[in-house]
Amino acid sequence: MNIHLPFTKDVIKTLKAGDNISVSGVMFTARDAAHKRMAEALAAGKPLPFDLTGQTIYYAGPCPAKPGRVIGSCGPTTSCRMDQFAPALLDLGLLAMVGKGDRSDAVADAIKRNGAVYLAAIGGAGALYANAIKQADVIAYEDLGPESVKRLVVENMPLTVVIDCFGNNLYRRAS
Fold first, then answer.
1. Which of 12, 115, 120, 159 is the most exposed place for a label (fewest CB within 10 A)?
2. How many secondary structure helices (H) and strands (E) does the chain include?
3. Burial class (CB in 10 A: 0-12, 13-18, 19+), 138
4. What is the pTM assigned to this prediction?
């Protein structure tokens, strides 16, 4: 299934845990340090560097681009490191997260409560994902280097639905 970002709730309702999809459009990168800064901004009543409504965050810290390339290797990082921040961001309108590994029960509950989705990227496939990225611009926290927040334009990025909006979790299915 090919999906154009940003996600809509109607599209998310069609996705089931285990579905393989391809996404094109805009998403944002943010890892541990960026999530910590966003949490600090929220606690201080300051705006976030981008409107979360309907957006997708890719848990990645891309390598610097080689000459002639848009971005360097851009594989997913372990998602559970963002679990302490994810429920609040989902409650603010975030609709999708991309990473690797399982999520906490609190995140799974927030996904279901907000009609969102968690998608997996293949660990170790950073070069594959870099090829799907057509544009990359730092939009916040430039001092964090690879962990800065970037706005990505992606084309045909292959992902797997892990936790759907109904609470089904691919990693926790009985075998």
1. 115
2. 5, 7
3. middle
4. 0.95
Angle 105-111-113 from CA coordinates, rounded to 5° = 100
* Residue whose pair of structure tokens reads 């201080």 in the numeric block: 44
27 pLDDT higher than 80: yes
- Give the C-alpha separation, 149 to 17, whole Å: 28
**pLDDT for residue 174:** 52
- Residue 11 class from Cβ within 10 Å (0-12 exposed, 13-18 middle, 19+ buried)? middle
- The answer to whether 74 and 126 are in contact (CB under 8 A) is yes
pLDDT tens, position by position, 71-113? 999 999 999 999 999 999 999 999 999 999 999 999 999 999 9
DSSP 63: P
Q: Which amino acid is at 146?
A: P
